Each structure stands twice: as C-alpha cells, then as structure tokens.
Amino acid sequence: QLQLVESGGGLVQAGDSLRLSCAVSGRTFSTYAVGWFRQAPGKDREFAARINWSGSSTYYADSVKGRFTISRDNAKNTVYLQMNSLKPEDAAVYYCAATRSDTTRSTNYNYWGQGTQVTVSS
Fold it and tell me: How confident is the model at residue 27 (pLDDT cuts 50, 70, 90)?
C-alpha cells in the first residue's frame, strides 16, 4: 500500500519554472514506477511523464518533452517534476501515481495522490 502526496503547485507566469514533488509513503516505493498526469478543466486526464523504479528510464509526452524533467530520490521516497518554460496550456491539476507496469495509461496506475494545482498566466 502506497500513499502519495503532491506539493509545489502554484501561480506562475508564462516562461517561469516550477518544481513539483511527490512524497510517497510505503516500504515498497522503490519497486514502483511513478508517473505524472495532469487534468485541465473540461479535459480528460493526460499523461505527462514517467520514471521507472530505479530512475534509469524516463518517458515524456510530446507536449512536455524538452521542458519537463522527471526524477526520483528513492532514499527520500520522493519523485520530482521540474517544469521549465511553462505555457498557459500547462495549467492543470497535476497528479502523481504509482504502478508496477511499464505503461503511460492512467488506468494501470494503482495509487494516486490528491493533486496540486498549477496555474500559468500569460
């Protein structure tokens, strides 16, 4: 059983940077891959980034590739999402989630955080 808690969201201007954190409780955290998803008002939840259990492999949606970086510190049970060059279209509630599958499909993620709001003004 894992519990995930996101933090670091806020209001920024276009072009700014923001770092989200996902703190995970649970002894088996280091055996899970973690993904970041986002959901804007009126839109479906979409995949943003994923990192495997060891941190050796990452994968990004085309919309964030080159601007966002996902990383993890298993000693601290924390996953990060560094977001640079933010755009108004990046505004959404950001969720972290954990899975033991090699997937970007949200339905395959077993544990979810409550989300953190990111607002980007133009």
Answer: confident
In angstroms and rounded to an integer, the radius of gyration of the C-alpha atoms of the chain is 13
List, as one string, the DSSP characters of 23-87.
Answer: EEESTTGGGSEEEEEEE-TTS--EEEEEE-SSSS-EEE-TTTTTTEEEEEETTTTEEEEEE-S--
- 27 Cβ contact partners less than 8 Å away, ≥ 6 residues apart: none
Indicate the SS3 state at residue 120: strand
pLDDT digits (tens, 9 = 90+) for 83-112: 999 999 999 999 999 999 989 999 999 999
The amino acid at residue 11 is: L
